[in-house]
Design brief:
202 residues; mainly beta; 13 strands
């Protein structure tokens, strides 16, 4: 049976970045790959082992440029520093951290931005349940078992709106399907993965 784990009662957590500022710098923008005044988005998932080491990078949202996708995953795999995921029992476990990096260049400048992924699930609720009736983005950690089934849900460490988490978790468990992680021997293992739910007024 799938259970909804209350944030206050367990320690389920997805991988969390540390020293984020050291992942990218302005010199990393691959200007030779980009057209002027076009923003390219690369959404990727980093598979992290129980020691916090990145084992794999998967592109889940392509920029449309294969070389840019590969470049982004390669740098993220080398530079990323993350705290490992923890299971509901508080033990380090496999995890997946998702985020999106965007790249842009103009005539005399270029830039990049990093943010958590949006749009893993869109949920509509009565406007009265939302602060100012505006769209909210809720960051969740989902426990995923060896078969890919969701086995738990909690707020990530950076999410502090418990009321929205209570709305988002049941919907995420019912609607989001994630790939299971494989260990070094290629065997499916349980993991904790971050997702983002967008909650808008009905």
């Amino acid at each position: 049976m799938i259970t909804f784990l209350a944030a206050a009662a367990a320690t389920l957590s997805a991988p969390e970045p540390k020293r984020e500022g050291s992942w990218w710098n302005p010199q990393d923008v691959p200007t030779q790959m980009l057209e002027d005044d076009v923003t390219y988005y690369v959404g990727y998932a980093l598979v992290v082992d129980p020691r916090g080491k990145v084992k794999q990078c998967r592109v889940e949202e392509s920029s449309g440029l294969a070389n840019l996708d590969k470049y982004t995953c390669r740098l993220a795999s080398i530079r990323a520093r993350l705290l490992p995921a923890t299971s509901s029992g508080g033990e380090p476990t496999y995890g997946v951290y998702r985020e999106t990096t965007s790249f842009w260049k103009g005539d005399s400048a270029s830039s990049f931005k990093r943010r958590e992924r949006y749009g893993d699930l869109d949920l509509s609720v009565p406007a009265a349940l939302l602060p100012k009736g505006e769209i909210q983005h809720v960051s969740l950690a989902l426990g995923v078992n060896e078969t890919g089934a969701t086995a738990g849900c909690e707020a990530t460490k950076r999410e502090n709106n418990s009321k929205l988490v209570e709305l988002a978790c049941p919907a995420a468990i019912a609607n989001i399907r994630l790939l299971p992680v494989q260990d070094d021997q290629g065997r499916p293992v349980a993991s904790v993965q971050n997702v983002k739910v967008s909650i808008g007024p009905r």
